Amino acid sequence: MADPVRPSGAEPSTAELFTRLTDQSRQLVRDEIRLAQAETTQKVKHGIMGVAEFGVAGVLALYGVGLLLATIVLGLAEALPAWLAALIVTVVVFVIVGILALLGKKQVGEATPPAPEKAVAGIKQDVDTLKGNQS
């Protein structure tokens, strides 16, 4: 839509340029804040998942210790199948514990550092661009 005050080929006035700069700067700040919120939310979700997986791994490790003790008792009390079955169950539980612990470690690793790195980098780039345009 053409500006009725200014002919179609004329340059915008300083006031118009300043108004555009102000509006675009406001929009840029809003967009960077939204990006920071989204990035922080994602990192918090990874942190929560990692902590939950560590918790499950801890509970299963506790059961694994109980099963290991039951295996030792059954191994001493009997000499064959009962303790072997308990040992197999114990090994399976500890394999699950190991998998969950590794998954939890990965999730916590994705959650750190909690600062929104992409948003901060975007803001720094925007500031550098604005400084370059004002010089």
Q: What is the beta-strand fraction?
A: under 5%
> Secondary-structure element sequence?
HHH
Major pleated sheet: none
> Regions with pLDDT < 50 over 5+ consecutive residues?
none
Find the count of extended strands (DSSP E, 2+ residues): 0
**How confident overall, as mean pLDDT?**
81
Backbone shape: rod-shaped
User: Structural class given helices, strands, pairing?
Assistant: mainly alpha
Please compute the radius of gyration using only Cα atoms. 30 Å
In a nutshell, what does this entry contain?
This protein is mostly helical and 135 residues long. It contains 3 helices and no strands.
Q: How would you characterize the overall build of this protein?
A:
With 135 residues, this protein is mostly helical. The chain has a domain at 31-109. Helices cover 84% and strands 0% of the residues. The chain has three helices and no strands. The protein has helices spanning 14-77, 81-111, 117-134. Helix 1 runs antiparallel to helix 2 and helix 1 runs antiparallel to helix 3.
Summary keywords:
single chain; 135 residues; mainly alpha; 3 helices
